[in-house]
Amino acid sequence: MPQSRPSIDATPLGSPLRALGRRLRLRDGLLFATRTLWVALAGAGIVLIAGRRWPIERLPWWAGAPLLIWLGGVLGYALIRPLPLPTVARRTDVMLKLKERLSTALEMAIRGTRGELVERQRDDAVYVARRINPRRDIGLTVDRRALKWAGIVAAAIVILTIVPNPMDAVLEHRAAVREATQEQAEEIEELREELHAETTPTSEEREELLRQLAELARKLRENQGIQEDALADISEAEETLRRQLDPRVGAKRAARQSLAAQLAELANQQTNSAQEALSQLAAALAGMSPTQQAGLAQQLDQLAAQAAATDADPSTGSGQGLASALSALADAARQGDARAGERAAQSAQASLTNAQRDQDLQAAIARALSELQDSRQAVAQAGPGSRGAGEQGG
């Protein structure tokens, strides 16, 4: 049977060639590093120059990224790049002018060639290989021209690092704006939670208000320090809420308070609750004389006219509903119909409940508007020279 060829590592030249290979890797890695260092430094310099034109967060880290990539490439080239032992033998022969002793002996050993001359040549190659001192005989080399370019680029980087960067003020301003927007987002979210807990069940209008506040808080949390965007988001939310705010809310509140007082006076009760007064009036109808019923009907007609004129709201019809219910109660009083009076009183109470809900919603909108105005002011005042720095950064 033919003998199998020995592996390269099993040959007598395997051990010394491996030592030479490690030295050659170091030599190649150093040469590659010196030839490419200026490229990595140029990349860092480009990032620093860009950082003086545009505000870049964590600029030193980004500037160091090309150097880290370069270092990884150098290590990969020196440690991972294949360097077979035949290649090591050929390169050593050329560098040390060994007249192909190592490469020829290694090739014959791999092929399994035998003979006295082959044995002598192998022994000679092994002897020569073992006498080679990698550190002494294979020197390290660098690309001096490339190193000069690297030194020039490094000097430019030092200058770029020392000279004040105008974008630092922009970044400081953005950081201040980002901090302000985060704080305002938390306050708006707290307000939203408070408003959510105030009314049960929550009306659709209140849900829309809570949704708008949640959306604004989200936008402020996601803001990256751009003051103009934050102010635009707050102003947009303010405008939306302002359109929902009823300018007559104060007059309506006063009218309902007056109505409650007059109903309490009609019911001869010490109460400020219009609902209770309506229930008491409906219950007292059956015990009234016709004259009393007629007088009560006349006064209820006046209250109905007052509700229709003062509290009317074409968009919701809340005032018109209350006026109609009071008119129905007045008719029931004229007719002495206690059951109809009870139904009319319940209808009026429902209208008052809806009106109170609307009043609560208006109060919530007004409170939200006040909070947004404070938020807009806080964001606008974030950072020294906020407007100028913000415009430069934009």
Description:
- This protein has 394 residues and is mainly alpha-helical.
- The chain has helices at residues 14-53, 59-79, 85-96, 101-111, 116-131, 134-137, 144-162, 167-198, 204-222, 227-244, 249-266, 274-284, 290-310, 318-335, 338-380, 386-393.
- Helix 1 packs antiparallel against helix 2.
- It starts with 13 loop residues before the first helix and ends with a helix.
Could you give the order of the helices and strands?
A: HHHHHHHHHHHHHHHH
Fraction of residues in helix = over 70%
* Main β-sheet description: none
- Average pLDDT works out at 84
Given helix and strand content, the structural type is mainly alpha
Low-confidence stretches: 1-5, 314-319, 386-394
Task: State the end-to-end CA separation.
Answer: 81 Å
The share of residues in extended strands comes to under 5%
Kindly state the number of beta strands.
Answer: 0
Give Rg in angstroms.
45 Å
> Which shape, going by the Cα principal axes?
rod-shaped
The count of helical stretches stands at: 16
Brief summary:
With 394 residues, the chain is mainly alpha-helical. Helix content is 79%, strand content 0%.
